[in-house]
UniProtKB/TrEMBL annotation:
It comes from Chryseosolibacter indicus. InterPro entries: Class_I_gatase-like (IPR029062), IFT52_GIFT (IPR055458). This is IFT52 GIFT domain-containing protein. Coiled coil: none annotated. The keyword Membrane does not apply. The keyword Signal applies. Keywords: Signal. Residues 79-160 form the IFT52 GIFT domain. Residues 1-26 form the signal peptide. Pfam families: IFT52_GIFT (PF23355).
Length: 251
């Protein structure tokens, strides 16, 4: 009997050890992280859970955008976080994608250096810069961040028509219809988003840089605000486009 009990104990210990090993082995990898900047004068993007005193219509809009972004992120096994202070190398550590949409003011030298270092070390950046109506290049120093990678935002695009598309290819799996109006010219990468139906007025580019870094730079932010309606069009494919953007950036 004693031998049987000792054998049973030994078997139990072995089974428990195997259980814990298999449990640890089968655990999902840690979630990826998308960091959304809300610390630099953004007019539209905010943390939806931290908007005291804001207009109710803006709160509703932000919750809608955050819900769409979260759905896109979850499809990539990612979680969404919000940057509410100045950027530092520590704040960008373990971030898989920096979402720099609609900056409304200047980032200081330390912040730009932190973001540049992040991308140079393999970080992924999604960045927008709208036309002068929302802020000039003197007021918003986005070029300080992207110029080291051969990308530059220029003057307003002369094409003032509404509506555009993303060309099927490396980024977009299909030709997506996306909103645009009054975009800014952006150069230095491979164009894939265009105003109108042709390819004469690009407003979105992508670029791979050293050490695995990737950048998508948009000269208009409407699609990343998930604006499915604009100028008598109510079926722009914002979520589909953003899903493809995230897929490429975080691959």
């Amino acid at each position: 009997m004693k031998r049987f009990i000792n054998s049973l104990i030994a078997v139990s210990i072995t089974v428990l050890a195997l259980f814990h090993f298999n449990d640890a082995y089968s655990q999902s990898p840690p979630q990826k992280k998308i960091l959304v900047d809300v610390a630099h004068g953004q007019r539209f993007w905010h943390d939806p859970n931290d908007m005291p005193g804001k207009d109710s219509s803006l709160i509703q809009r932000v919750k809608y955008m955050a819900g769409e972004l979260t759905r896109n992120a979850n499809a990539m096994g990612a979680t969404v976080m919000y940057q509410k202070k100045k950027f530092t190398p520590a704040s960008l550590k373990d971030v898989d994608l920096l979402f720099l949409q609609g900056v409304g003011g200047k980032l200081d030298e330390n912040e730009t250096a932190a973001i540049i270092g992040y991308v140079k070390n393999g970080g992924r950046l999604f960045v927008t810069m709208d036309e002068d109506y929302w802020g000039t290049l003197d007021q918003i120093n986005i070029n300080d961040i992207v110029k080291p990678f051969g990308i530059e935002y220029k003057q307003d695009n002369p094409d003032r028509s509404s509506g555009g598309y993303a060309k099927a290819g490396i980024i977009a799996k299909e030709r997506w219809s996306i909103p645009v109006h009054g975009a800014r010219i952006v150069e230095g990468g491979t164009p894939f988003c265009y105003i109108g139906k042709g390819e004469s007025n690009p407003f979105g580019i992508y670029k791979e840089v050293e050490n695995g870094g990737r950048i998508i730079a948009m000269g208009d932010g409407m699609v990343s605000l998930y604006m499915t309606r604009w100028e008598n069009v109510d079926n722009y494919q914002c979520a589909q486009f953003m899903q493809d953007v995230f897929s490429w950036l975080m691959k």
